[in-house]
Amino acid sequence: MNKWTFPTQIYAGPDSLIRLTEFNNESILIICDPFLKDSSNLTYVISLMEGKNKISTYTEVVPDPPITHVVKGIQYMEGIKPTIIIAIGGGSCIDMSKGIAYFGRKLKHMDIKSFIAIPTTSGTGSEVTSFAVLTDSETQVKYPLLDDAVLPDEALLTPLFVKTSPPNITAYSGMDVLVHALEAYVATAANNFTDALAQQAIELVFEYLPKCYKPTATDQDRMSMHEASCLAGLSFNKAGVGLVHAMAHQLGGQFHVPHGLANSMLLPYVIAFNCSHNPDVAKKYARLAAKLGFVSHNASEEDKLGSLLKAIIKLQRTLKCPMTLTDFGVDKATSEIKLNLMTDRALEDMCYRFNPYPANHDDIIGLYKNVL
Ligand SMILES: NC(=O)c1ccc[n+]([C@@H]2O[C@H](COP(=O)([O-])OP(=O)(O)OC[C@H]3O[C@@H](n4cnc5c(N)ncnc54)[C@H](O)[C@@H]3O)[C@@H](O)[C@H]2O)c1
Ligand SMILES: [Fe+2]
To answer: PROSITE patterns annotated for this entry (predicted)?
Structure first.
């Protein structure tokens, strides 16, 4: 039996920030990405609530948020006693805020009426997921924590903040959306509902990500990618992701490869690997390639899979994504030393469990070797 809900209330559209004008007499903590510090966008957000609420802002956010930053945020929050928490930023900011809101509610018994996420990247889908990815700085391990209690109560999707995203961040976070949807599509917990969400997200990414990468991107293009990100988040939150994510977390932990870029590097190899070991996966991806119009419905399964891989690689090239760790600036000798360690940790990563084929140690070493 499948039982699931979408508990996060989603407000989508250029006017979604109007929701913030509804608060009165609240203590509001805005946890925001440092790129917004002193910006007119942040001033605008504050102007929607100030006068009738007490507002504090906290900007101690870094990419791949370490657990120690969550602890510092909790200490800051204790002095504020917020009744509303608003996270505005990329996945790192939202994940860190999830940790802060979670501990505020569970450990400190704070009466936080609403935890609101406003994503500024079209990437992680974190605004609607039960995941928070935190890093142990001492061991360099990224831990995806899974608990419905970290789900934001509300998500506001507006193109306003994503507009300042530089091309490389648009590219990498956009590739993360594609990987969420393509992995969810064949993950062990996938079903017809999650497939529908994933398929729509994939279609939107292929159409709108190249447009968002260009300086001519319109608000409509940005909004479509933002919705793709949210759809993919809703899909993988139920279906799971897979080996690409389990392996990519190690590239992020060891070499600080941006999350979406690490996923992008591994994606074609893991798809080919999963297809060659699980005929149902091959069939499903082949059907998808034809549905997306990459190839005729009458083509062979092999041609259909080839067309999907070709479309992915074309997109990576359009977005100027480095294809290997060497391209990213990590020399081969350095990455080779970490191969065994990364493989052991990928096998322990919770995303591995949702991969449609149980890759073994040697398989994963072989897959990593493609991207050194
Ligand atoms: N919780 C989940 O469900 C989930 C899913 C996938 C990934 N993640 C995690 O999320 C993190 C990655 O998040 P991300 O890809 O959104 O990147 P990010 O949040 O790490 O941001 C990357 C950089 O972009 C900047 N930035 C963000 N938005 C910007 C904008 N609009 N304009 C200018 N600069 C901007 C940030 O300040 C930062 O320097 C990783 O830690 C990853 O593991 C979480
Ligand atoms: Fe991801």
So the answer is: ADH_IRON_2
Flag whether pLDDT at 20 surpasses 90. yes
- Residue-wise pLDDT for 151-164, tens only, equals 999 999 999 999 99
Spell out the alpha helix ranges (H) of 214-295.
Answer: 219-239, 243-255, 259-277, 279-291
Indicate the CATH number of 9-162 among 3.40.50.1970, 3.40.50.2300, 3.40.1190.20, 1.20.1560.10: 3.40.50.1970
Angle between helix axes 279-291 and 259-277 (nearest 10 degrees) is 120
CA–CA distance, 230 with 162 (Å, rounded to integer): 14
What pLDDT is recorded for position 19?
98
Residue of 31, 32, 33 best suited for mutating to test ligand 1, as the one with most atoms within 8 Å of CB: 33
C-alpha of residue 146 to centroid of ligand 1, in Å: 18
Handedness of CA 23, 28, 90, 43 (dihedral sign): positive
Atom of ligand 1 nearest to the CA of 65: 41
CATH of segment(s) 167-369: 1.20.1090.10
Please report the atom of ligand 1 found closest to the CA of residue 236. 3
* Closest ligand 1 atom number to CA of residue 132: 1
Ligand 2 is an ion; residues with CB less than 5 A from it: 176
User: Distance between CA 339 and CA 361 in Å, rounded?
Assistant: 10
Residue nearest to atom 39 of ligand 1 (CA): 63
Backbone angles phi, psi at 196, to 5 degrees: -65, -45
